[in-house]
């Protein structure tokens, strides 16, 4: 029997599943390719940071030593941020060659590229009346507020984002100690944009003390956590800290994020929300993930967005959400959807619209007066030229039929119309009208609304008011959002851990951007969870981060797909957050999730179950399997049944029930064996269910997930249609809208001058690069240098630990997303010596280790063609 292909929310791409036409692979093997590059780097020094107990003088001495060694070695770099609290090191701006030299300094533990952070971009619209703004009924927040009396009072939530518009009345209207936004810092300034692909790239931060928001994302997030005014958030009485790491253009980088986390640590907070992430960098060992995990260990609840990268398939979760103890949030669609609309007189009836493709944009405000060009019985309405001036200053109401909307729009514009509203001739609401070049706004509406307007026109003038938004029942209500990223993390830990409403969420935006707006993304799910954590902390003020996480996870409700089957665990974690159940639960199960690893690492697990009630409780023990996902390419991934064999044991004996006295606890052994019929590489999961025999108490659950097979044997280096790895040089910048380096493949006998080179707005050097496609996460990549035909290494040119994977090469991959560029600057490390190699012929040997350190598998290797260094 065929198995379903997992193509949620990417129907257009799935229409191409028949595969590329014959010869497509050969055509793709071009000589040039755009690849990822960076000019900013984390430099990690030897000792653990202060949060882990290292004394300040030790850290200060290491920083002084680093600077002195770099100066002695003549390495040119510019320090961006220095860290010592949650991370010990600095972030710097340097060339690829400079970064390679920094790796070779004594006292440097590791060098990581600074990654670009991704987030959803809310599109501002005019103000409108909120309706079910935060899906409070979906999460139980309405019950927590109205029946249990918890509003987050006394809890301080740090928002690390694009700032917060603290002038917004729903967020307090002011900034300072007596305001709702009590504190914070702007790390970047308005013109900052650290996305190198953008034409607005400006990576130099200009900090100031006022963390206002000109982009909108952070204000939207803060409103979901705790707006209290026209709209109401999950925890409407929390106070906020605002830490701005994103400028007005939206580009952000994780070295700024790390600086903000250190400031949060010093300032203090109960909960941190980061609706921001580094897609595909799923290493818990990455700098921001480690910093976030240290915040958790120091008693702060940290919540992060899982990411909107479903199209990147399995293992697409990103830092900082993959940090140990960080609550990583997936997205569920709201109970309603929102659509653009206008209202009509006399009762402000809202009319849903589909904007024209190619016409002038739909106005955010203003009014117009209708004029009909036909009747509901017209077959060729406005298909012929209309009298000149007959529609002067009017919005034309036109019935669909006979000719195209482009013809109709051309005719009404010629007659003086200021806009055109087309309505359907039947009950089929077709969608977007194609009207390229029409200089007035064009929109399409349903037959019922069109005939309603026509009927009102017969009774007198009808006015429309632009800029409304209407709510509609959602066909995907309560389902996992189609964009929500899949786990696991790079080390096979279970991510995401929980889900919350993130699809079609209304919240606050800056006053100058329209006050309120609807946006979708795991960026919107994360603050729902952060608000839930704030409510829980108000109810249980002594709970630590681990207790908060387990309580939310135990009480969450697993989400099913449209077919009725459970969604895979790696899409939803424990399920949809249920805050009132979490607050009222008298049973606690820890840990709140189980990560089983792969077949080579799977061992017996254990859970501790505590009865915190005043009476004896008996639990029935059971399990519920969720489907597995097999296939790394989401276009061809498939769901497979996953009847894992689960055994509960107590004191070594199998049990199916458990009785605990008041305040009693027990340690339960868990054995989970995946279905042997699962495909190699399938990621499976399910739920351990603890059901109290008292029917008034809801069941508690612990999700589990694992990898079928040997994860370490998944190839790291794969060729793709381009035939990687390549010996390459940078030859320019792309001429598309994105600013990306262009690399050209080099054959044997290529000559490199090692001299600086300018490529338009960017600088580089004429040095060798190795371009690789990383099909899997690499625990370590190492580049060594040889003389041609020799085996003896001349030294190490580059070592990089915990390297993110690249995108799968398919119809959905983005420019630069499928490659990683490894530079060689002509220098190597030999023990403690840093050596500049003389001119001559060389080869590079790349070795890549799989993601699970300690396994005996030999690294994958590749040896480059012979090339020549010829300076001057």
Give the structure's gist in a few sentences.
With 872 residues, the chain is an alpha+beta fold. The chain has 15 helices and 49 strands.
- Report the CATH C-level class of the largest domain: Alpha Beta
Q: The CATH topology of the largest domain, please?
A: Rossmann fold
What is the helix fraction of residues, given as a range? 10-25%
Number of helices: 15
What is the name of the CATH architecture of the largest domain?
Answer: 3-Layer(aba) Sandwich
Number of strands: 49
Low-confidence stretches: 7-32, 120-133
- Radius of gyration in whole Å, from Cα? 29 Å
The geometry reads as globular
What keyword list fits this structure?
872 residues, alpha+beta, Alpha-Beta Plaits, Rossmann fold, 5 domains, 7-stranded parallel beta sheet, 15 helices, 49 strands, 16% helix
Which secondary structure elements does this structure contain, and how are they paired or packed?
Blueprint: H1 11-14, H2 24-28, E1 32-36, E2 40-45, H3 56-72, E3 78-83, E4 89-93, H4 96-103, E5 108-113, E6 116-117, H5 136-139, H6 141-146, E7 156-161, E8 181-186, H7 217-226, E9 239-244, E10 252-253, H8 254-267, E11 271-274, H9 287-297, E12 301-305, E13 327-333, E14 336-344, E15 349-352, E16 354-355, E17 367-372, E18 395-399, H10 405-414, E19 419-423, E20 442-445, H11 447-459, E21 463-473, E22 498-503, E23 505-508, E24 516-519, H12 522-539, H13 545-555, H14 569-572, H15 579-584, E25 587-590, E26 594-595, E27 605-611, E28 617-630, E29 638-640, E30 645-650, E31 653-654, E32 657-660, E33 665-673, E34 683-692, E35 700-707, E36 726-733, E37 741-745, E38 750-752, E39 756-759, E40 762-765, E41 769-772, E42 778-786, E43 793-803, E44 816-823, E45 827-830, E46 833-836, E47 840-849, E48 860-863, E49 867-869
Parallel strand pairs: 1-44, 7-9, 7-11, 8-9, 11-12, 12-13, 13-22, 17-18, 18-19, 19-20, 26-35, 38-49
Antiparallel strand pairs: 1-37, 2-4, 2-5, 3-4, 6-10, 14-15, 14-21, 16-20, 17-21, 23-24, 25-27, 27-33, 28-29, 28-32, 28-34, 30-31, 30-33, 34-35, 36-37, 36-41, 39-40, 41-44, 42-43, 42-47, 45-46, 47-48, 47-49
Helix pairs in contact: 7-12, 8-9
